[in-house]
Specification:
Blueprint lengths: L2 E5 L2 H4 L11 H12 L7 E4 L5 H5 L4 H7 L10 E4 L2 E3 L3 H21 L4 E4 L21 H12 L5 E5 L6 H7 L5 E8 L15 E6 L5 H19 L3 E6 L16 H18 L4 E5 L5 H16 L2
Parallel strand pairs: 1-2, 1-5, 5-10, 6-7, 6-9, 7-8, 9-10
Antiparallel strand pairs: 3-4
Helix pairs in contact: 2-10, 5-6, 8-9, 9-10
This protein binds zinc ion.
Length: 308
């Protein structure tokens, strides 16, 4: 297996203040743990390019792009764009790198240059709505990549799996009426962004779970609800919104997953991808705010992707 890691130093330059949990140290913690686990050298390290605006515009309106661009060009000030999210002078470039990583990884996987990829990027994406950034997210990296796979590369069906603890409201909104996309997730409810869960349909298996939910319950949910829908849908490629904030050590939420649960979920997704999608998987970092738990969970996820 050739598993690539996409990242870029620009993703460390975007920051929203010392107190903010979505911080550059998250990417450093991931890099450190990949080295500690002795798997860093086994991965294909790739530089995230800047996304083309045409790729961004497949999922986002001019208003969303204008807000992401509305930062100052100099100085160290922060410009809030919602209650949880602000821009500094590096944010727009970082957002283009994050989306660009997802698009480049999609091309490399479809072209057969690599088997699968993990994008260690920030800002994250799954709260970003088509018309407006939101909740630490500027552009919806996974949604931009999925639209690239469908509209630029001609794939007919893709699945988006979101195991972040928060509801991927931006992704759900982007694809709620698109039969080419199956979205499967669980999310703690009620919790930010406090969107009301939409009914489960064959194309939308987004399952709310209460605080305190542990790995055994999540695994059963995956077995009973995600996997049958994925087998029936037969995706040609799978995207993962890989948030690790459902970990029991993460203080931004109250679920009880551990590293082994992330490894197990990744193995299930690998099995679906092998059977239906020629193994094609692109995974993008979303949340995960306890630095140690985040790094250890990414190691578990990437080891499963790389079959190490
Ligand atoms: Zn999250």
């Amino acid at each position: 297996m050739t598993t690539a890691i996409y990242s870029h130093p620009d993703c460390l330059r975007h920051e929203m203040g010392e107190w903010h949990p979505e911080c550059p140290a998250r990417l450093q913690a991931i890099a450190d743990q990949l080295i500690n686990a002795h798997i860093d050298g086994l991965l294909d390290h790739r530089v995230a390019p800047l996304a083309d605006l045409a790729a961004i515009a497949r999922n986002h309106t001019p208003n969303a792009i204008a807000i992401a661009q509305s930062q100052p060009h100099e100085g160290d000030d922060y410009y809030p764009i919602d209650g949880d999210t602000s821009l500094n002078r590096h944010s727009y470039t970082a957002a283009l790198r994050a989306a660009g990583a997802a698009v480049a990884a999609t091309d490399a996987v479809i072209d057969g240059a690599i088997d699968n990829a993990f994008c260690a990027v920030r800002p994250p994406g799954h709260h970003a709505r088509p018309s407006v950034p939101m909740g630490f997210c500027l552009f919806n990296n996974v949604a931009v990549a999925a639209r690239h796979a469908l509209d630029a590369r001609g794939l007919r069906r893709v699945a988006i799996i979101d195991f972040d603890v928060h509801h991927g409201n931006g992704t759900e909104e982007a694809f709620r009426d698109d039969p080419r996309v199956l979205m499967a997730s669980f999310f703690q409810h009620p919790l930010y962004p406090y969107t009301e869960p939409l009914p489960v349909t064959p194309n939308r298996i987004n399952v709310p779970v209460p605080a305190g939910t542990r790995g055994d319950v999540v695994r059963q949910l995956v077995q009973d609800q995600w996997l049958p829908a994925l087998h029936a849908f037969k995706p040609e490629m799978i995207f993962i919104s890989a948030g690790f904030d459902a970990h029991r050590e993460d203080d931004l939420a109250g679920m009880g997953l551990v590293e082994a649960d992330y490894a197990w979920m990744t193995e299930q997704i690998m099995d679906i991808a092998r059977r239906h999608a020629r193994g094609r998987i692109v995974s993008c970092l979303e949340g995960g705010y306890n630095l140690s738990a985040l790094g250890r969970s990414v190691v578990a996820h990437v080891k499963a992707l790389a079959e190490i």
